Amino acid sequence: MSRHRAVKNLNIEEELDDGADEDLYDELNDMSEEDILRMNSGVQSIKAALGADSGISDAKIKETLWYYYFDESASIAWLRKTYKLKSKGHLAHIFACSPYIDAELDEHVFVNAHHRSGSPPQAAAKSTTQTSSLSSLRSTGGLKGNSLSGLKSLKSAGNKQGLSGLAKPPSVLGQALSALRTSATSAAKTNSSTQSGRLLSQMAAMPAMRTEQLHSATTKPRLKGIVERQVPALQSRQLSEDRLGESAALLKQKAVLSTKGLRTKISTLYAQPSSLANFILDDTHTRNSTATEEAAMATINKLKQEISEILEENRQKYANSGCNVQDGEAENGSNVVSNNGHGSMATNFLSGDVSFVSMLVGKSSAKKFAFDTPSPDDRVLAAQSTAGSGSSTVAASKKPSKALPSTKKTETVAPAKELGRLQIDDTAEQEALAIKPRRRIDVAAEYAKTQNQRQGLNLVVVGHVDAGKSTLMGHLLYALGQVSERTVKKFEREAEKIGKGSFAYAWVLDETDEERARGVTMDVATSTFETAHRQFTLLDAPGHRDFVPNMISGASRADVAMLVVDASTGEFESGFDGDGQTREHTQLVRALGVRQVVVAVNKLDTVGWSEDRYAEIVSRLQGFMQACGFSNNDVRFVPVSGLDGVNLVRRVGSEVPELAAWYRDGSATRPCLVELLDTFALPERTIKSPFRLAATDVFRGGSAGSAGSVSISGRIAQGTVQLGESVVVVPGGVSGIVRAIDVNFEPRDWAVAGDEAIVQVQGLDPLQVPTGAVLCAPEQPITAVTRFETQIAVFEPKVPITNGFPVLVHIQSISVPGTVQRIIETFDPRTGESKRKRPRHIRRGATARVEIVTESKLCLELFKDAKELGRIMLRRGGETIAAGIVTALHG
Amino acid sequence: MKLLNRNIEKDESGSVRLIPEGSEDIWHAYNLIQLGDQLTASTIRGVKSETKTGSVSTDRKRVNLTISIEDVFFDTYACALRIKGRNIVENKYVAFGQYHTLDLELNQPFTLSKPQWDLISLKRIEDACDITKQADVAAVTMQEGLAVICLLTQYMTVVRQRIEVPIPRKRRGSTTNYEKGVLRFYDQIYRAIKQHVDFDVVKVVILGSPGFVREQFFDFMMAQAVKTEDRFIIENKSKFLLVHTSSGHKGALEEVMRDPQIKARLADTKSAEEARAIDKFYQMLNDNPDRAFYGYEDVSKAAEHGAIGTLMVTDELFRAADVPTRKKYIQLVEDSQASNANVLVFSSLHVSGERLNQLTGVAALLNFPLVLESDEESESASEN
User: Fold this and answer.
1) Are A721 and A804 spatial neighbours (Cβ–Cβ below 8 Å)?
2) Which GO biological process annotations does it have (chain A) (predicted)?
3) Residue B283: which of A515, A526, A799 has the nearest Cβ?
4) Residues A805, B298: C-beta atoms closer than 8 Å
5) What span, in angstroms and rounded, lies between the C-alpha atoms of B349 and B364?
6) To the nearest 5 percent, what fractions of chain B are helix, strand and coil?
């Protein structure tokens, strides 16, 4: 058929008729499997974030999510704004007004029209809803949800600090602002006023959010989390306070330019922060009465003190300044006062040099945060860190406020000079930091903010070979909707083809051809799933004895463990007695610092769900695990069938009467596997320590393109990492810049200790990063040594350990040949008393101090400083002979 | 052995200059040197000088001597070669025709002249200088991402190549990176084997690994050989032996030696014997610690009591630079032998020898249990 005819047959109207709306729906319908999964999880987490009673329909959330392409924070921010704003009419009005004013301003003041061509404020002024304003902002900038590039362009505009500080919490805002930035630098003014509008609306949303948080948190352990969450909230409050000061200045200018009625509205808004603070205070009062945890109480008190101090300060300043400020602004006078002067100053300039004023205003808004004063975040953090000593807290919180007016003063006196300095500072900073596309994120604060969401846990699944670990987890992932029906059906067909029909679920995790063909997991498979309160990173370890090194790699990345045992006759015994891996894995997992274990007694269906068999296994394991150092409360048992999916995500019912008959407490059936997983306690995260990530896997390229970069995956042992940060590789000492971070297969701006992350680093080659290397913060790199002292607990080696005993030293994901150079002493593990100096050999079950020399350098930390990087395993001839903790490093 | 110079005439007379580099080279030299040959080497000569007053002093001078060989003695334990002969090149200290006994020293060049270099001798030099050719076993220990290719001789284990290839791990949704990495890794081993293994000499190629690496590699190699019509690999397919080891590090060779399959194929080589002995020692240490001693002091005490059943010493101790240390150990060896002990000198180049080296270099299995004083002291101390 000729092409002409094809064109003829084309229904042109139909082609052209595809409106934008239809596009959206088409896209929603044509979503890939992966997208659907992300969509579902996104909807859930957004719902969780917004609270159940937000009254926003799923469809709306989905649409928003799709619009922002699964940028959850952006979606949440947008949803929050849209829906909260409706309840606060006057705020919405203000917001609607401010761009309008801007547009007016533009017409009056700025004669050069070049920046106005397609300028967002105009569009915003026309539309009254934020949606359209936002979207137009976005489209103007030509940015598609990529906040990073947005921020980069923002930087190019010169005054990144002020804006990105704002851009941080609602990332949409950041995008919008950066989009604006790119459109014209002279639009600085428009920017800041848009900011103010947004901020106001955000602030309005804030108390509502907080109520939700506080009400939902009733349980004791969460109390602390709440308080921590309040800190960033407080910070952002302060941030907004300062911002408001600026916007006030701007608005005053506008007032001069015959815009009316705004002031009163602003002042009502000004009252907001203080009422907000009171709100916190009040709430913490009630909390005090219920709280039993002392730490939490202390934090609350600290916060209270903090808040009242800040308020007091403001009041004082207001009194001192004695300027005439409108009544409503009384509470937060100080900022406004200083801004007031500044504003009128600017107004004076207006008559003379219009463009200069716009510059000044733009710069001043940028200035406030970058400069010599600590950021509000720092302020609160500083205060927090000095908790207990009241005087220093006062000093810390007072300092920045005092500094602010003085800055203003110099600025008004010699604005030109100030501007010059500012620019110099900026370039100097640029040089120093090479690539630093954004203001540093205060990751600790951000992390604290996310604490109300599902909390992450790394779960390693261990057990003897063929206990059914992969099948069980594969089935669990399927039951939780992480794997589609179709995929499983496909696996079933294919597995059937090679005569391994029962392995279909295992194929979800065993992805290499070799693993599938042999039906044996060879390397740790990483996946993720969610329960009601937990977000799990699943590490499915191999059970085969030859792959214990891989299992160690998996277990050293885990917080909690699931031990799978095969209940069928003879199989449990073969895994548990002798040198089965049930035994070895349990010891290893404990030695690697895992305290909580769920034991899944699998394949109980093969023995007719016999209660006796279950009880027998439980009692044998309980005894053994106690001997390994587990507390009985931390070890919980559950009977399951991985293949049939019994008791995984749903409590057992009538479908398996044999099990349901005895697996119950009184009338209620006992909890299923997922319920047990969901109640794992959360471990402490050492996010304050210097950043460390032990490389498990290194590969070229990554999610943010492949040119000249390396992706390094592994668990962040401690500290935090964020985009644009410089990291150094030890051993080797080469450094690079973090370009992308993925946690649980989703891109992030930052990651913290405990996250199983893939960090893409620019400027490295895979050969420079051997497995076992550690990514560190450049200020405090880890040490790499070949000689170190360790305290070991000897397991059950076939032969005793002597001086000069060759071993494989396992740490995290690597093993290095080494020798026990010197046995220093054996000692009593309980008292720590030396039993015998320089013994000739160490026998099974003993504890000893030894010196180990390795062939190549190992990245180690002292156990007392960093637990995860201070644990070693000694293996020889395929058996684990000892576990140790590092007590001294020798260069 | 290193060949420095080869100067052989058409009538097959001539000389070669060699540097022996290890104990095995001395063994090779012993096999090269025959009565009637001429040997030039650096040696130490006691020079007597008499003053006018009649007092005699003896100085030890290092001189370069050429002797016509009359007797050769090879010390199997110490792995030393002593060559006795008459001086044929006169110098300041040693007159023509004076007797001298040369000790062939490691890393000192010597020149050997023969009136006739026969084929056998020439082949010997070739073999001695080519480590590849003297190896009768090649071993490749592998684990994912790491392979060590060794050549095992009677006296030595020589690492020819260590291959480390970063293999990306399997990740959710994609195994291509992993599979590519594995193929790259196998390809490198394949090429290294072709480069380092001379199938005319090597009787067995051991492929050792944990898991399925060895099988996967073997399949890969055969497929590759068929594809590229690599006759050497295809013809020698039967020489490959697949053995389980616990890791891919060099230390895993010890496990290889323990494997009964290998023991049969290697027909009781030195390394297998050593591996067995050290296993026995550790087993004894476990079962009856009073019958397994290590460290010079403990062992020499056992020797004093005449308790030593098997003495294990590494040759490294005899290679010790300072004479007293060497003598000390030689004395120990002699004492033990006097009490009918079985003395094993481990080649420190073998894995088991290395292991013994780490274990102070000397260990002994006793015929009857002994309690050491140091033990008594510390035990009584801990009791107090």
Assistant:
1) no
2) cytoplasmic translational termination; regulation of translation
3) A799
4) no
5) 20
6) 40, 30, 30
Of residues A139 and A464, more confidence is placed in A464
Can you read off the two tokens belonging to residue A147? Answer: 């906040």
When CB atoms are compared, the residue of A745, A806, A837 closest to B358 is: A806
Q: Say whether domain B132-267 belongs to CATH 3.30.420.60.
A: yes
What does each C-alpha distance from B263 to A157, B269, B272 come to in angstroms?
Answer: 75, 8, 7
CATH number of B278-376: 3.30.1330.30
Distance CA A65, CA A468 (A): 37
Interface of B with A (CB under 8 A): 143, 145, 164, 166, 168-173, 175, 177-179, 210-212, 216, 244, 246-247, 249-251, 255, 282-283, 285-286, 289, 293-295, 298, 354-355, 357-360, 375, 378-379, 382
State whether residue A651 is helix, strand or coil. Answer: coil
Looking at the domain that runs over A692-776, which CATH code has it been given? 2.40.30.10
Per-residue pLDDT reduced to its tens digit, B276-315? 888 899 999 888 888 999 989 889 889 888 889 999 988 7
Q: Is residue A60 over pLDDT 80?
A: no
Residues of chain A with C-beta less than 8 angstroms from the C-beta of B285: 799-800, 802, 841
Per-residue pLDDT reduced to its tens digit, B108-143 = 899 999 887 876 677 778 877 876 555 578 899 999
Query: What is residue B89's three-state secondary structure?
Result: coil
Q: Are A777 and A727 in contact (CB under 8 A)?
A: yes
User: Residue A772's closest chain B neighbor by CA?
Assistant: B166
Give the C-alpha distances (Å, rounded to integers) separating A534 from A451, A454, B259. 11, 5, 49
**Cross-strand pairs, A214:** none
CATH architecture of the domain covering A783-890: Beta Barrel (2.40)
> Average pLDDT, stretch A19-28?
46
- Gap from A97 CA to chain B (nearest CA, Å): 50
pLDDT tens-digit map of A624-678: 999 999 999 999 999 999 899 899 998 888 888 888 889 988 888 899 999 999 9
Q: What CATH number does domain A454-678 carry, 3.10.20.30, 3.40.50.300, 3.40.50.2000, 3.40.50.150?
A: 3.40.50.300
| Helices A130-141/A72-87 angle, 10° precision | 150
By the 10 Å C-beta count (0-12 exposed, 13-18 middle, 19+ buried), A732 is classed as middle
ipTM summary value: 0.71
Q: CATH 2.40.30.10 region(s) of chain A?
A: 692-776, 783-890
